[in-house]
Amino acid sequence: MTFPFTLGPGQSGFLASPDQGKYYIWKGLATSAQYYVNKQGIPEDEACTWGSPMRGKGNWSPTILGTSWDDLKAHEGFTSLFQNPESYNERLDYDITFTGDGVVSPCAYKKASGQYCQDGKCSGDIKVGCTVSLGFANIS
């Protein structure tokens, strides 16, 4: 929450995605970078702060995006979307869809239903998110 990252509709950008083999290990497990995903129109100075409960922004944003990659075992990158457990009553007001060459098991968030979808199948359980993976070659 230190560095804001703002995108408009149809825009793309880059986020840090740590190597699981070289990043923080918690209880013997690999971890990922986590990003709060705010609703449209939230100004950066509000979106990048620790806010009040149930205001739907900052650390109370509706959705969290996690990302990491595994260069040693699977040679894959992973990005997930899931409901912020601190904000179960909040929903994003736009869709998120992962697309591109090499995307395995597409993942999306659909604002119309407020659901996270994996391979085109949406879950009615708010606690079920989705994860997309992208295979890559090991380049040395």
Number of strands: 11
Question: Largest beta sheet, briefly?
Answer: 5 strands, antiparallel
Low-confidence stretches: none
Strand order of the largest sheet: 3-4-5-11-7
The structural class is mainly beta
Percent range for β-strand residues: 25-35%
What is Rg? 15 Å
Overall tally of structural domains:
1
Helical content band = under 10%
Structural description of this entry:
The chain has 140 residues and is mainly beta. The protein has one domain (25-135). The protein is 3% helix and 32% strand. The protein has 1 helix and 11 strands; from the N terminus they run βββαββββββββ. The chain has one helix at residues 44-47, and strands spanning 25-26, 29-30, 33-37, 63-70, 76-83, 96-97, 103-104, 107-110, 115-118, 121-122, 130-135. Strands 3-4-5-11-7 form a 5-stranded antiparallel sheet, with no helix packed on it. A 4-stranded antiparallel sheet has the order 6-8-9-10, with no helix packed on it. It has a two-stranded antiparallel sheet with strand order 1-2. The mean pLDDT is 85.
Q: Layout of helices and strands, plus pairs?
A:
Elements: E1 25-26, E2 29-30, E3 33-37, H1 44-47, E4 63-70, E5 76-83, E6 96-97, E7 103-104, E8 107-110, E9 115-118, E10 121-122, E11 130-135
Antiparallel strand pairs: 1-2, 3-4, 4-5, 5-11, 6-8, 7-11, 8-9, 9-10
